[in-house]
Amino acid sequence: MLGKDFLENKGGQVLSMDLLLALVIISVFLGVSANALDLVSSKMDESSYVYSLERITTDNANILLSTPGTPEDWEEGHQSLSMVKPGLAEVDSVTGTVNKTLSMKKISKLGENYHELMDGKVLPFGLNSSMIISPRDSSLESVTINNQEHPEDAKDILIINRTIMCDYMIANILTSIVSNQPSGTSSDLYKPLFCPHCNLTQNFKHPREESENNKPGWKCKPFIVTQNDINTTDIYIMTDPPQIMDESACWIIDSTQNISDSPMIFKSSPYRLNEKLSELMGDKDNATIWVHVFSSGNTDEAFNVYIGSFLKNTSLEKVKPQYLSPQPCNFIFKVWI
Amino acid sequence: MDNNGYVMTGMSFLLILPIIVLFMVLINLNYADTESKSQFIQSESISNVVHDFELNIPCLGRQVLKEEAFTVVNSKKPLFDSRKSTRDNLQLKIDQITQSYNNKGWHVNCTVQSISESDDPFQVEVTSLVMVQKGKVAHKQVIHQKIPINDPNDPLPDPMPFVKCKDYGGISIDSSRIYYGHSLASYLEQRGKKNWEIYENASSPLFIKKCPYDPFVGHGVPNTMETLKNCLDNGFYHESNDGACYLCRLEGKSTCFHQGLEIFILPPPINNQTNSAPCSVDHVVFGDDNDDIYPGGCIQYHQEGNLIFLLYLDDSHRKKYGLPPI
Ligand SMILES: [Zn+2]
Ligand SMILES: [Zn+2]
Ligand SMILES: [Zn+2]
Questions:
Q1: Alpha-carbon distance B161 to B159, whole Å?
Q2: A266 and B235 in contact (C-beta within 8 Å)?
Q3: How far apart are CA A217 and CA A254, in angstroms?
Q4: Sign of dihedral through CA atoms A316, A317, A322, A327?
């Protein structure tokens, strides 16, 4: 035994040669190890978020923003949440490709089940976080997915701020008449449609407006409305900007079966079309409706017209053309221990 | 050295052992960590590359179809195999993107596997295989996509009439309509069809636009024909079982087995009514076999002074569009 050996050492030395040698080797290894440790820690500083909170969070936030999640339609709730890995990117229903646009349906589902979907999946257990989407356009409502104030003394707060496109999904665009042609259109190929009023006489007539000149005239477009749209959504006609300068501007909504010549003046607030459309449709399941818009053609007074269907009982403040298409937003994600 | 000739006692070796282990773990840790981090960065940029192809393939595909269609319109020579040539031409365009990635040190490969007709005749299906490799991370993905052919801001022309009328005097284009001059009439005359002269100076639309009057039976309402007139004025195309799909139109065919398109070919307005003439639907007028060209009864859809605007349709097309039977 060790104690016995020590005591019975005849030479009377406290340190044997062996022990000394061992100590030398130990110290050499200690030195090398310390050096290696140093190397690792300097590397940690260098690419700062190796193994740190920041690194894991940033990576997972990127995945959250750029994938639709698994399964892709997890927001529909067909699968139990424990099987779901969340992702917020929208999948194009026609082409099946993943857009770089966030879906509001997924966002609100994530908000409802925040801790269940985030803890251990996007964030390591034991971290606190808040997530907010605030639109660039300050007139739009910002969305709080998880609201938690971080304490004053919280150490190691990480803030991720990204610009993303967000689809509010409270409305669908039925048609739009924009004052300038979409870019990338070859004007020799692009001809406006003939409207059903083009055969009529006098002020009933809507001649095709040539795109290049700035003369007053009608722009007309068809769109399809179903009985289901009328029953389950509120359909509005609105302009951008809401208050238009053009005093001659007016609009007509009719169909080929029911051609009308009673123009309406644009109001500064959106106008609900459900009754008018239901009248035009009768008892059919769907109908092709024409919208005709008259404008002075003056570029200073130019305005865009949108017809969109909003979820039933959407408050009038939310009936805005901006909600018809994805909007640029800031995604703000704060994480702390 | 002790009396037994050991440099180190077992005891001191045991003391050193944990340090050796610690050392190895540290080195390993360091290495593994750097590797996993670089793999993550690579896999994310790989998904960006795949996304880049996903965005580009439908646009380039439409560009290829448009170029091919205008080549057929100008040369009047049909494509021998439109699926193969579209695939090859699209591959050439995609190779340019691939090349630019490979120049940056990537290993990217994208193969267009097939171009085919879709269930929706206003779309063409494309299937491609993307392979991306960078460093140790490799990714392989098959993408199925649909190319829309009825974008109102960038429409595609219908090449079929140009091929059909090539040997009959040719046809002319005015902005967005095809004018047949004498060619369609002589096409029908050579096939011995009654009242072929109705189609002297006939016209039809040049660009594919989808009809908004869906369901089609609505064309017959109201019976004063405003809906039908507006459809004909704008030259809207309709889905049809008998008409040719877009890819077959590039091959100069008027009919095919796929879900296809049909369009009305309008005789010019006349003063006196002729009750029967070849049916004014493109897959009938340009029928491949002599029997495919059958007559239809007249429908008046408009009148301006003495000029009456007529269309000739058989009973089955009248039923489809909700028009009164002969
Ligand atoms: Zn109009
Ligand atoms: Zn039609
Ligand atoms: Zn076909």
A1: 6
A2: no
A3: 18
A4: negative
Q: Do A180 and A282 reside in the same domain of the chain?
A: yes
Dig out the tokens for B163 from the structure.
């091929």
Q: Which ligand approaches the C-alpha of residue A208 most closely?
A: 1
**Closest by CA position to B216, among listed B243, B181, B177:** B243
Q: Are A185 and A301 members of one domain? A: yes
Q: Is the peptide bond before B215 cis (omega within 30 degrees of 0)?
A: yes
Q: For residue B8, is pLDDT > 70? A: no
Nearest-ligand number for the alpha carbon of A261: 1
Pairing of the two strands A304-311 and A171-177: antiparallel
Whose CA is closest to B201, among B169, B159, B233? B169
pLDDT at B51: 81
Looking at the fold, whether A181 and A289 belong to one and the same domain comes out as: yes
Helices (DSSP H) in B104-168: which residue ranges?
160-164
Query: Which of B4, B41, B146, B226 should be substituted to probe chain A, the one whose Cβ sees the most A Cβ atoms within 10 Å?
Result: B226
Domain of A290, in residue numbers: 171-313
Domains held by chain A: number: 2
Query: Which of A16, A36, A47 is the closest to B23 by Cβ?
Result: A36
Query: Does residue A319 sit within a domain?
Result: no
Mean pLDDT of B76-93: 95
Same domain (yes/no): A92, A187 = no
**B20, B146, B233 ranked by CB distance to A94: nearest:** B146
What are B91's two structure tokens? 């591959």
In 3D, which of B132, B160, B153 has the Cα closest to residue B59?
B153
- Which residues, in sequence order, are CB contacts of A12 under 8 Å at separation 6+? none
Look up residue A207 and give its two tokens.
């001649």
ipTM of the complex: 0.80
Tell if the pTM clears 0.90, that is, is over it. no
